[in-house]
């Protein structure tokens, strides 16, 4: 668990926006909601969270827990430190924001844009959502130097 603890703490510390979620199912979002299963709702929320950050034109790091060999351990440690057992689990500048509902409410109220501006992720003039294309996100595997920390795919 020490390896997982160090990994999670490093990811939260080194990424201004950290999203821990589950990989998307092969079904489109509308179908996800119709399924009404907890996993389907979590996957829909992950899509919604990522789309929200893209609309805000900010880079974020996302890891898909169900694609990592130690994903269950990571999720267990996240639940321990955040008191939130569901995903997505979102951190901005090291602060736990909550899940997708918390993010969406914060955006609606302007709290997230203010927080992003405070941590220099969104210039003052661009702190509100826009219809322009999002900032591209780089693809980076989860690895420490040459040694992989976790097996599986991750996205950024």
Structure description:
The protein has 156 residues and is α+β, with helices and mostly antiparallel strands. It has a single domain, classed as 3-Layer(aba) Sandwich (Glutaredoxin), CATH 3.40.30. The protein contains six helices and six strands. Strands 2-1-3-4 form a four-stranded mixed beta sheet, with helices on both faces. Strands 5-6 form a two-stranded antiparallel sheet. The longest helix has 18 residues. The radius of gyration is 15 Å and the shape is globular. The C terminus is likely disordered.
What secondary-structure arrangement, pairings included, does this model have?
Elements: H1 2-14, E1 17-21, H2 29-35, H3 38-55, E2 61-64, H4 71-82, E3 89-92, E4 95-98, H5 100-109, H6 111-118, E5 143-144, E6 147-148
Parallel strand pairs: 1-2
Antiparallel strand pairs: 1-3, 3-4, 5-6
Helix pairs in contact: 1-4, 2-3, 3-5
Sum this structure up briefly.
The chain is of the alpha+beta class. The chain has helices spanning 2-14, 29-35, 38-55, 71-82, 100-109, 111-118; strands spanning 17-21, 61-64, 89-92, 95-98, 143-144, 147-148.
Instruction: Give, in order, the helices and strands.
Output: HEHHEHEEHHEE
Strand content: 5-15%
Overall residue-averaged pLDDT value: 75
Task: Please bin the fraction of helical residues.
Answer: 40-55%
Q: How large is the radius of gyration?
A: 15 Å
Find the structural class using helix and strand composition.
Answer: alpha+beta
Biggest β-sheet: strands ordered side by side in the sheet: 2-1-3-4
Separate helix tally:
6
Characteristic terms for this protein:
156 residues; alpha+beta; Glutaredoxin; 4-stranded mixed β-sheet; two-stranded antiparallel ribbon; 6 helices; 6 strands; 44% helix
